[in-house]
Input
Amino acid sequence: MADYDFDVLVIGSGPGGYVAAIRAAQLGLKTACAESRATLGGTCLNVGCIPSKALLHASELFDEAASGKLAKLGVKIDGMSLDLDAMHAQRIDAVKQLTGGIEYLFKKNKVEWLKGHAAFESADTVKIGDRTVRAKHIVIATGSSVTPLPGVEIYQQVVVDSTGALELPKVPGHLVVIGGGVIGLELGSVWRRVGAKVTVVEFLDQILPGMDAEVRKESNKIFKKQGMELRLSTKVTKVERSGEGAVLTVEPSAGGAAETIEADVVLVAIGRRANTDGLALDKAGLTVNKRGQIEIDHDFGTSVPGIWAIGDVVPGPMLAHKAEDEGIAVAENIAGLTGIVNHDVIPSVVYTTPEIAGVGLTEEQAKERGPIKVGKFPMLANSRAKTNHEPDGFVKIVADADSDRVLGVWIIATLAGTMIAQAAQAMEFGATSEDIAYTCHAHPTHSEAIKEAAMAVTGKPIHI
Ligand code: FAD
Ligand code: NAD
Output
């Protein structure tokens, strides 16, 4: 290894970085991972996927009990109440266990954790705290952080980002969310379920950009039915402190009369941007694109040989599983193997109730490419969903009109996040809708709705 300290240095220990580091070590490469946070696991484990799901799960159970859903099933709970401290404690515990798990995996695989902020000194040399190391390959996996809203200071008391919204010490009377994307709807759902009035202010004319139009419209209806107020085509022009809370000034996105909304807590969730500040990319000969991301080729190589990049810091959906798959692939490419990620088949899931999931092309995108067939099946007609009192949603399958190959699958259902894996696998194997329709699905399961939607592509579902 000549005078290199490591074969591979990964910067950042999120789902992209820690997976890349472990895979590189498994492949026999001497590997280190630099991380400035006090614990490993990045955004996802510390302040993202995991703590949000801990609160989503607990708040859903609370809502089922408080709203009378459980009573309808014969489960009566007298004198129930919210113990928010306990809800937070189980969130913190979940994070602790999982971040500790990565530390264990690093030790097991002999990945050295270099603690501190990493900055390039040159294309193969990086300074982490007091230590300077040379590595033959460097993987940038520094992730992303919250996009600020110009003029709105996030001070984590009344005006918070997703991290602050995970830690609110009491249920706000009125939570106003700026941004009707994934974070806004997931964390908005958490606080609505435990008693907050929730208003979502969305700049565009519909929530959940990037998803299938019919899914966006139906989700909108469901969230409204649950009691969320959705202010579409509306922009926030000002957020001012007012007493213990804040006052937002909003107006139509296209311009028009302004009005004010009073809030106890304001959550800014208008997207995330790549983390490259403080990396001294220029010393490595690297630049960023207009969106502040590091451009890569098909193999995850940057414009500088020996420097690679993956995860939220590169273009593409900002999702943990996408980052993880890229982590495996980049390590395999560094080791001389062939690491590939099929970016056409990356599922995405919104973990609300019901869950909202999709993979592949939306109906709109597919139509632009050529003739298509669409099959739909409502969850109301699925025996298991009906029995469980979970009537909302549908499965929609978009297939190529000529070849019948599945191009996209969209699901709103309580178990959509789990069901979408089957669709992704079918698409990865190049399945047709007929392949799915003739696959035996266990009864009674929510997944039968996927089979029926596939049967509907050719107009022959059984249960509608
Ligand atoms: P990150 O996880 O952001 O990790 C990057 C790490 O690099 C950080 O720990 C950071 O401290 C470190 N770092 C940065 N710069 C340096 C430096 N110079 N030196 C040393 N260390 C550095 N995705 C999903 O797929 N499912 C979900 O359910 C989901 N829920 C989410 C909920 C929330 C509230 C948020 C905010 C995000 C959520 N995401 C979810 C998105 C997911 O967290 C990200 O896509 C994922 O974490 C990206 O992984 P990454 O490895 O690219 O970067
Ligand atoms: P997002 O891109 O999902 O949604 C942001 C929303 O804010 C959009 O609807 C956008 O139109 C709106 N917006 C932008 N500027 C606005 C403004 N000035 N006023 C009002 N609305 C405005 O971003 P997010 O919800 O912040 O999430 C960030 C990232 O984290 C996403 O890319 C997502 O993939 C990831 N994430 C994923 C999950 C999951 O997979 N379940 C959960 C949370 C976060």
